[in-house]
Write a structure and sequence with these properties.
alpha/beta, binds thiamine diphosphate, 41% helix, five-stranded parallel β-sheet, single chain
Length: 663
Amino acid sequence: MASTSFHYNVNNLSSEDLIHLYKTILKPRLIEEKMLILLRQGKISKWFSGIGQEAIAVGVTMALKKEEYILPMHRNLGVFTTRGIPLSRLFSQWLGKGNGFTKGRDRSFHFGTQEFNIVGMISHLGPQLGVADGIALASKLKHKAQVTAVFTGEGGTSEGDFHEALNVASVWQLPVLFCVENNGYGLSTPTHEQYHCEHLADRALGYGMESHILDGNNIIEVYTKVLELTESMRRQPRPILVEFKTFRMRGHEEASGTKYVPQDIMDSWASKDPVVNFQSFLKEKGLLNDAEVIAIKEDILTEINTHLERAFEEEPIHSTIEMELYDVYKPYDYKDIQPNTETPTIRFVDAISQGLRQSMEQHPDLVIMGQDIAEYGGVFKITEGLMEQFGKDRVRNTPICESAIIEAAMGLSIAGMKSIVEMQFSDFVSSGFNPVVNYLAKTYYRWGQEADVVIRMPCGGGVAAGPFHSQTNEAWFTKTPGLKVVYPAFPYDAKGLLATAVNDPNPVLFFEHKGLYRTIRQEVPQDYYTLPFGQASMLKEGHEVTVIAYGAAVHWALETLDRHNHISADVIDLRTLQPLDSATIFSSVRKTGKVIILHEDSLFGGIASEISAMIMEDCFEYLDAPVKRVGSLETPIPFAPPLEDQYLPKQRFEEELKLLLQY
Ligand SMILES: Cc1ncc(C[n+]2csc(CCOP(=O)(O)OP(=O)(O)O)c2C)c(N)n1
């Protein structure tokens, strides 16, 4: 019998507690051993082993209350088993079967479950750290005295998400337990090639945060210390970082092996096995004998085998194209709310402000976050006065960290709250691109969790602001299933569509052209009202040509047609790009036989190309000329007004329209 290489300070834990801990840490080990066999038999596809690290997942989960969220990583099987997920469901998940958590749509530990308050990772590792911030923010705003625990490996701490999430958690004093599992290697990269400081726990100091270093292989140390920390965090909400020193005993994933790890390191960590040592300790203490160990293992193995059988017997997943498409967006029952009030003439910018204020009044759980949006009122002064009306909890200035804030918005949604995130300029969404396209867009399809987030995108050129304050980047998002994209051209539409964007539980990118903010005025009802997505508006009706546009381009098209009022044109303002009102487009094209699509974005890969292809497929026999697309030049947006004018498609539109009519 190996003698224990740890000091187990069991304090006032009872024998029952200790045996319960033993059974809880043993279970993921035995499941893993079984999985390794199944992997060799080709019955499962990939396995990320947590052997040797179980004390961390199990100890942390044991210390948390079951209503508190945990965001585990790919080696944290112990979180899932300790939360009591039926093993057959886990096995079905790994086999891609229906009784799992993702309808076969995502693999391994990439899933969440509200039933067990677990939010699994996305492959990109870091984003969940900011998501944990959002969940913790919700519990803080609701005065719930709850902790959120989130895991990362030491490799993941090199990602920007880690630093942003720590900073936000500290600035906002959120009760997040950041669990860093330092297991020596990130894939094949040893720690000295990953970071250049002695302990990752030291990073916390730079963020003004408390931190601790724990022996990650000692289940008692992990459990009792995390218990103490989390109790304190519930009393006094604040983030704490814990670095757990441990080791990855198997390859990054099973197929890749551990050749690059020196044998003496392997041997020394093998002697610190968290399961074997704890078992020896319990035996030495007389709390466990060989027969009891065998009986406990047999019980767990019987459970594993019974549940495995159930999962293997389950039919392979079956779906249809319709079912897959149906699950990309959360169904939303649009409620049409008609205003019945005065309609003063206001600017585009005022319509957005009103829309925000009224949505905040409609939804007490709605939070707005963005840079300089509170006292300062935002760089475009759109949120001016909101903080005074709704308070700083709900109108939140953020540090400059687009990723963490979009992730936090996702976290708020997981905790049942709505949020609007203001990008200072839509250009800066690139700094938060990953959570938009990989987290917000895909989570509902993956495990049925909506991302109830609106991202406001002040965008567009014509304002001599150069390559990084002028882009109109809607095509980055219309390409990604799971996102809705709104792009109004008029104050009336902007206000009504913004209300709908907030009501809709799906992630919405809401584009607001800066050039329209203070130039376009319209009569807009004072009261709250909604407008439906997926309905274009027909601004003019004619028979010679269909003009399709959105955003500022709508106004360019109208100005051009005003100068050439002999042209009889249907003018379609798309208003929303996803969903797209193809029916209105097709019926107009069938009537006119000629179509020109104008947008501000550069042409290649823009929406005009997509719409053009759709028209070609659906209306080919009605066309009297090739579909014409007009967009900006294939260059970044230049700053100097003469260059910018040349870049934008306004002039070219007039020429192309004339050519099309002559065709
Ligand atoms: C953004 C991103 N880059 C690279 C990878 C590939 N990758 C997956 S896990 C991993 C190593 C992670 O190391 P660490 O965070 O220490 O966790 P560990 O696997 O050691 O538990 C890498 C490089 C990824 N999934 N996501």
